Amino acid sequence: MQQFIIAFLVGGAICVAGQLLMDLLKLTPAHMTVTLVVAGAVLGGLGLYEPLIKFAGAGASVPISSFGNALVKGALSEAERTGLVGVLTGIFEVTSAGISAAIIFAFLGSLIFKPKG
Amino acid sequence: MSDKKKKKLTPVQQEYQAFASQREPKRPVLANSIRAFIAGGIICTIGQFFQWIFMTFFDFTDVSAGNPTVAVMIILAVILTGLGVYDHIAQWGGGGSIVPVTGFANTLASAAIEHRSEGYVLGVGGNMFKIAGPVITFGVFAAFLIGTIAVILKALGGM
After folding, report:
1. Residue B116 Ramachandran class (φ > 0 left, ψ -120 to 50 alpha, else beta)
2. Which of A45, A48, B38, B151 is deepest in the core (most CB within 10 A)?
């Protein structure tokens, strides 16, 4: 149960950070998500995002910043094995599930659903 | 508007800019933040629930369970987008619905559904990443830079 509360608090805090980026710095949603993804990638490169996921679970892995972290993680773990080429071959290794699911189900959705409003 | 742009404007235009920014409705920053916190927190709690299922019944660790969790959240978001429910969540939650990965799935699905009238190849296929593209582009490029730097630092340190 405690894990759920931590996920709520950390996830909510990251979303507030995004909301403040939009409200105070007047960023568009697209600029805001890009900023968060790059921030997640930088934190991942410094090895700081992994402990956050261990601590907060889905509170850290569901926000889009974990996408940047996962890209870096894939690139680094593959680079460990094969060197510089691994950066290219490994980038999508971890995020494959998310991107594949998003493309496949968005396409299926476009077959099933009609635009609303 | 940036200061550089302001200098190029005529006095009348500057006056108008000052007037317009005065009349611009103030953003309810605190209310927006609270709603983003609640909406984002709830979405992450739902994610935590699926993560718990994956960890308890499918032998995932707390780190590796993130992937299937994200996939399930994306599927849910696509269904809610198709049913027109996610729009209402986004209206209320603001950043709380954009920041989680469900917001990413929502932009993909809504672009795909919206453009289906233009045909499946050029409409759906071509426009699916119209809004979600920047995230992938900048994420991948940042990951490439960071990965390359890490490899070089390691090579230098290993010498």
Report:
1. alpha
2. A45
Claim to verify: residue B40 and residue B107 sit in the same structural domain: yes
In B68-127, the residues whose Cβ lies within 8 Å of chain A are 68-71, 73-75, 78-79, 81-84, 87, 93-96, 98-105, 108-109, 111-117, 120, 124
The runs of H, that is alpha helices, within chain B are 3-7, 11-23, 29-57, 66-82, 85-93, 95-98, 101-114, 126-127, 133-158
Residue of B45, B79, B101 lying closest to A98 (CB–CB)? B101
Spans of chain B, pLDDT less than 50 = 1, 159
* Dihedral sign from CA coordinates of B56, B61, B67, B73: positive
Tell me the per-residue pLDDT of A85-106, one tens digit each, with 9 for 90 and over. 888 888 888 888 888 888 998 8
3-state secondary structure of A63: strand
Three-state secondary structure call for residue B100:
strand
Tokens 């909406």, residue located? B39
ipTM comes to 0.88
Check whether residue B85 and residue B153 sit in a common domain: no
Query: CB distance from A48 to chain B under 8 Å?
Result: no
Is the pLDDT at A32 greater than 80? The verdict is yes
Sign of the C-alpha dihedral, residues B152, B153, B158, B159? positive
Same-domain check for residues B92 and B22 = yes
* Residues B35 and B64 reside in one and the same domain: yes
